[in-house]
Amino acid sequence: MNLAHATVLLWVWGCLQAFEIVEKENIFQRTPCPAFLMFDNAAYLADMSFELPCHCKPEEVSAVVWYYQKDLGGSHTKVLTDFDGRVLTEESQVRVGSDMLVRFSIRMFSLLVFRAQPDDSGLYFCGTRKGDYFYAYDVDVQSGEGMVATFKDQGQEPFADEHHGSLHIFTTFWEWTPCDRCGVRGEQWRIGLCYLRSPGLSPRYRKTVPDVVSCGSRAVPRKLRARAREHSPELLVQSCVVPCEQKAAQEGFVAILSYVSKLGSPPWVPQVPIQFHWQRLGHGLIISCPGARPEHAVAWDKDRQYFYRTQYLEGVNRSMRVFIDHGNHLHIRFTQLSDRGIYYCWRQGVRVAGLRLGVTSRGRYQPSFSDPETRSAVELTLIGYLFITAVFVTIHVCRCCCYLFHCRPNFSP
User: Fold this and answer.
1) Are 280 and 361 within 8 A, CB to CB?
2) Which of 71, 78, 74, 75 is nearest to 220 (CA)?
3) Where is the signal peptide (predicted)?
4) Between these two residues, 308 and 83, which has the higher pLDDT value?
5) pLDDT tens digits, residue range 357-390?
6) 3-state secondary structure at position 285
7) What is the pLDDT of residue 319?
8) CA dist., res. 207 & res. 33, Å (int)
9) Could you give the CA distance from residue 177 to residue 159 in angstroms, rounded to a whole number?
């Protein structure tokens, strides 16, 4: 009876699993493709990663190809496909500023674009190799360079809405992030992107709210898009305090520590993985939090010093040597000996990693144009030479003019 019961259970489990697979495949049968291609509007902040699902396709299509156009009907179209042996891209392997053709991946008919940039804004089509389109998106990636930070603890308020006749420009905020620290005072924030309302929008673009799309949407005429470009994204920040979740330590690990502590002083055991790094004195350093994205709640500490965005956010003070940018990276300009220590990273309210930073004045530095400091030095040198050349040419032109017009100064006594 036990063997028979086991056989029946395995058969039922296999039927249920097969039924689940069939149900997943039948999703596209229940979602017919529109007869007239429409564009779903979606807005993101620069350096974010986004996913565009292909919500419908014919049942006989087993694989999809994604296409990209800057503007509707443009002559240049990028083909995004993982066929012909292309290796799937991982977000951790993507570099900032690389072309979109090495920053995308297709998984289960969905397009994933990693670390999107404003140049990635445009129209995305889900279709086949033959160029048949089934579903489309209107993607607007807004730059975070001019982002304005508003601190509620200081009594600041977000920017007021703009009204230009029938054009209404405003900010739409996302949900609050979790508190970036636990057990101590932390911060949470919400990202606000630029949206507008206008009655003269193209009907081919699908809108969640009537006549409302993101400011960079292709549904907005170029004149209105240029006017809305001055309304930059916003960041709303406020303080928060949450308790830490207690995690039970492993008994064996605790027993080993107690035994070692009896032999001498208790050893220092890091609570999170710590990486060691040596930095040359006077050079810049950018530290990233592992697995963090711009929309995550990320915090930085140095030993027992907390870097709050109220004081260390980029743009708060132009003379800051240590600051946090809008992509949650910690910047250290012109490293000093006082920068030595352990820098801890919090992600979504949990401390996840640390970096022990050492500063040295020794070692040979190999200059490279990929280094921003090398590029800055070259630019300053070229600007200096251009300035000296301009002064030299101006002096000689003036002397030539004076000679031609017989106005040479007489230096004789």
Assistant:
1) yes
2) 71
3) 1-18
4) 308
5) 999 876 555 555 555 556 777 888 899 899 999 9
6) strand
7) 81
8) 18
9) 20
Q: Which residue has the tokens 């799309």?
A: 213
Q: How many residues does the chain have?
A: 413
Question: Any idea what DSSP says for residue 275?
Answer: E
In this predicted structure, what is the pLDDT of residue 229? 81
**Closest CA relative to residue 176, chosen from 246, 242, 245, 272:** 242
Question: Which amino acid, one-letter code, is at 153?
Answer: D
What distance lies between CA 82 and its chain's CA centroid?
23
Helix, strand, or coil (residue 206):
strand
Q: Which two tokens stand for residue 321?
A: 């040597």
> In one letter, which amino acid is 148?
V
Contacts of 320 (CB under 8 A, 6+ apart): 312, 314
Is residue 276 within 8 A of residue 163, CB to CB? The reply is: no
Dihedral sign of CA atoms 162, 176, 156, 325 in order: negative
Q: Which residue has the higher pLDDT, 247 or 118?
A: 118
Q: Which amino acid is at 282?
A: G
For the chain, the average pLDDT equals 79
Which DSSP string corresponds to 48-101?
Answer: --EEE------TT--S-EEEEESSTT-S-EEEE---TTPPPP-GGGPPTT--GG
Phi and psi based region of residue 349 (left: phi greater than 0; alpha: psi -120 to 50; beta: remaining): left
* 3-class DSSP state of 304: coil
Q: What is the distance in angstroms between the CA of the first residue and the CA of the last residue of the chain?
A: 129
